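Field: COMPLEX_INPUT
Field: COMPONENT_COUNT = four
Field: RESIDUE_TOTAL = 460
Field: MODE = joint
Values follow.
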Amino acid sequence: MLDLAILGLLEERDLHGYEIRRQLRSGLGLLANVSFGSLYPALARLERAGAVVAAEPGGDDGAVRRAVPATGSLSGERAVLRSRRSAGSRSRRSKKVYRITDAGRQMFADLLAGGSSAEDARSFGLRLAFARHLAPGARLSLLERRRAQLRESLGEMRSVSGGAELDVYARSVAEHAAEGVERDLEWLDRLIAAEMAAGGMAAGGMAPGEMVAVKHGSEVVGRRTEKGSR
Amino acid sequence: MLDLAILGLLEERDLHGYEIRRQLRSGLGLLANVSFGSLYPALARLERAGAVVAAEPGGDDGAVRRAVPATGSLSGERAVLRSRRSAGSRSRRSKKVYRITDAGRQMFADLLAGGSSAEDARSFGLRLAFARHLAPGARLSLLERRRAQLRESLGEMRSVSGGAELDVYARSVAEHAAEGVERDLEWLDRLIAAEMAAGGMAAGGMAPGEMVAVKHGSEVVGRRTEKGSR
DNA sequence: GCGCCGCTATATCGAATCGATATACTTGTG
DNA sequence: CACAAGTATATCGATTCGATATAGCGGCGC
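Field: COMPLEX_OUTPUT
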């Protein structure tokens, strides 16, 4: 799940760990608390898997290095220069800029489209945030899958907490959670409507030349327009 | 965090693992996906720590056993009887009913009031759901601490995503998240108002005999009634 | 009347994630 | 110029997740 986020950001531009974390925290709001304890292992994992390559400014490889600092950190660059100029140059821990590879791009596409089974809010939000990399059909199917899940969970919530035996506080928490799910559903309906309007098409179909580069596993489930219950 | 949830449920009645999970999933909506892989280790942990005691129906201890099944599972009880009646009786894996101890109650109070530093939505919701076990002052301080956190994070969100460079999907996710935080703030304001109305008291004070059994660490932070921004 | 599916129930394993902490360099501030 | 605060990478132990194994039970269908 973190892998998806990292690869998604690296699709845009090369970044180093600290920057990735910053973008995760502020940019999306989701994943607002990824810690270094998960980020750096994830980066190491991705590097081992060949999905990304790291370029340390002290290394021999001159290829990367042009990466966007994205902070006002001229300082970092200067520090690098200084360390390279100084004698020993070993024993300097510096920025490690990561770049996505072709294998990484493939992995990103798989992660984005693949995970068919039940996903939590974080994972869905993440997928949707990168939905521009999905084919329109897969996009729609992502939205509708999520809607179905939320409808189901709302039903469960309502059926249980409709009864008594919860005190004021617990009841308030449960109700607020249910309202949140309702808002999510309205939001999803708006998104689905927008998607259908943009893509044309009546029933979950796809345009002929659409299934490009993105493998989505045979489940486009043609949108049964049930609008009961609410 | 799971410990808090488990102890909170056990304050109410004795339960076995499967039931605890069910209540966590449906009852609160939060913690909707705790898996056995975290639940059973947590129970074992709590038992080791002396916070709960387990009574297996096959054991010598006749004390517990009166636990509420809470499902319509007469079947389970019958099965237990049968196995106890039958000869060997070894090699039967049956329900393990957990009961909270005094040490567990103390631990629950500490967990509920203690964690002063930044908490996520799950942890806060959990605390609030059990807020009836808190003294009114601690309750208010919990709510206001959360409000302060949300205000801050909303500020960050707005300042960042107000700008451009996000495509339609990412922007929609970010905006929806921000709206969710706004709703949370409104909700908190309602709760705080209700709390103040119920408890009397103007500025975060407490009634004389209030600080009972619940240790909250010296931070009642008298409610600066800023109503700007938002 | 018996095989099989689904529910209840406990448990474990490896991997992912969290939260705290260590290290080291730079920049701004009193 | 000492010192706090920000940037940056990394590791450790504990917790949590997701999948899987095991086993008894009732119901159903044939």
